[in-house]
Records
---
Amino acid sequence: MIKVNNLNKIFNENTKKEFHALKDINIQIQTSSCVILKGVSGSGKSTLLSILGALSKPSSGDVIINNDSIAKLPDLHSSLFRAKNLGFIFQSYNLFNELNVEENISIPLVPLGFSQKEINQKVQTALNLANIEHKKDETVSNLSGGEKQRTAIARALVNNPDIILCDEPTANLDNANSLKFIEVIKKLKELNKTIIIATHDPIFDNLDFVDNTINIKDGCICE
Ligand SMILES: Nc1ncnc2c1ncn2[C@@H]1O[C@H](COP(=O)(O)OP(=O)(O)O)[C@@H](O)[C@H]1O
Ligand SMILES: [Mg+2]
């Protein structure tokens, strides 16, 4: 379970540019559930995801993931925590264009000290899950948008994380590729992953495997 307790994020605190981006957020996300975090641009979705993903620290309050306090993790532990537990799928794919698909996918495994044989097995599993096996030797710069996204998905899955965080995952995809993305999410849900998708894309409305939609507006969670 993920518990968000009285979470606040204030940018540029105590300056003229002070901005209260997240206001007293309290949410609970059940293990193995799929949750949509819905809100217009600027509502605080990415800020919340980055704190959930231990990429940034809250100004006050805390996030508890499997009994670990994200706010109190020292930076070194944050990166290890991410490597073990979390997969990120961003709107921009953040891939290395000059490397091939397989090389990009294996990158998160490097700090974890696996053997080459283990790496190959894990990469193979991720390639299959994300339906990008057939392009594994292709240089990323030669891929279509949908293929780049499936490579990014495979990279997010390669460490077999329990929690998958997606930030506007369909923003750069056409309808056909968005539907393929939803099929991958459905498979992940069947694998009992906890999935959080920040989006304002109506394609995520009324999907049968979505357990909960959390609406965020001006940094507040609306009932
Ligand atoms: N590093 C930052 N410094 C100052 N303001 C920021 C920073 N990051 C985000 N914000 C502000 O916080 C608000 C929420 O941003 P964000 O979480 O990116 O929204 P969303 O992802 O829903 O579009 C916006 O008004 C944005 O300008
Ligand atoms: Mg955003």
---
Amino acid sequence: MRAIRYHQVGGPEVLRLEEVPEPVAGPGEVRIRVHAAGVNFADTERRRGLYDAAVPLPRILGSEAAGVVESVGPGVDTAWLGRRVVALATRSYAELTTAPEKELLVLPERVSFEEGAGLLVQGLTAWHLIHTMGRLSVGQSVLIHAAAGGVGLMAVQLAKAVGAKVLGTVSTREKARLARELGADEVILYEEGDVAERVRTLTEGRGVDLVLDSVGANTWQSSLDSLAVFGHLVSYGSASGAPPPVELESLYEKSLKVSAYWLRTYHPPELQRHAREALRAELAEGRLQVRTGLVVDLAEAAEAHRQLEGRGTVGKVVLRMP
Ligand SMILES: NC(=O)c1ccc[n+]([C@@H]2O[C@H](COP(=O)([O-])OP(=O)(O)OC[C@H]3O[C@@H](n4cnc5c(N)ncnc54)[C@H](OP(=O)(O)O)[C@@H]3O)[C@@H](O)[C@H]2O)c1
């Protein structure tokens, strides 16, 4: 089968389309004929050697796939055969991949493979940021950085569904338009001046209850300055570089909370099932959209990475199998 592999860390050019052996579904696993693979910012960090660096090379990239179950391994219900599914699946930049049966989610009929490929990594992250970590509730306010990105657009929609006031930051007017279209009440362009000052103006001087920060170094201080008293800053990424260490002393004045979220932390199965089902139901009923911004053929994975890390994409980036 064909897959995207890299033999050394580096720029997007290290990604190569190669013929590799087909994977075999092991016990408790299924083999999926991939129709669409989700591209995530973390894939670009893996390729650069900034994340998961201990994994031996060459390596097939990927974290999630949408496709059709083609075969099942020992102990797996054959009813899965032929079903349209999405799954968290490593090595999904490929025509075939494997995933544990317990990770599978049936893709609703009205949802395309491309949209499905954007549901799990970014959707689950956004869901846990809003609900598990942020415990956002009606009438509260949230500031979402990179609001037109993959996780960002999901978080905007989930926060709006809660009944919160949603503020976002983005780098361009086109991104601002999209974030507003999907529910953001106010969108701030970073370049327009002091973000925290704008947040205070837009919240009658109060600040926001929750900040979701995946940008890191460049937004960290404005995130802290944007919080209302008893506010909560959740860090979940560092696209612009690692944020500075947290000075406990600096949190006292407003009694702030700073925390971190990682999708790969052990999540109690019941909680994860609940989150996945909630996302699937929202998607099936049309209340949640996966906006695909860039969809390219598998062979163009390097270009997808170039655009994603160059801040040139909105919503979900997807590789489709031609
Ligand atoms: N903790 C977890 O478990 C978890 C899970 C999934 C994703 N993440 C993190 O969440 C973030 C978003 O992931 P995603 O896949 O949805 O990507 P994305 O948001 O679609 O793309 C990254 C966005 O970050 C913004 N950005 C700001 N400064 C940047 C810089 N110096 N370089 C590149 N981008 C910059 C850009 O939006 P603007 O141009 O509007 O600023 C860019 O479009 C990433 O940091 C990722 O690592 C974490």
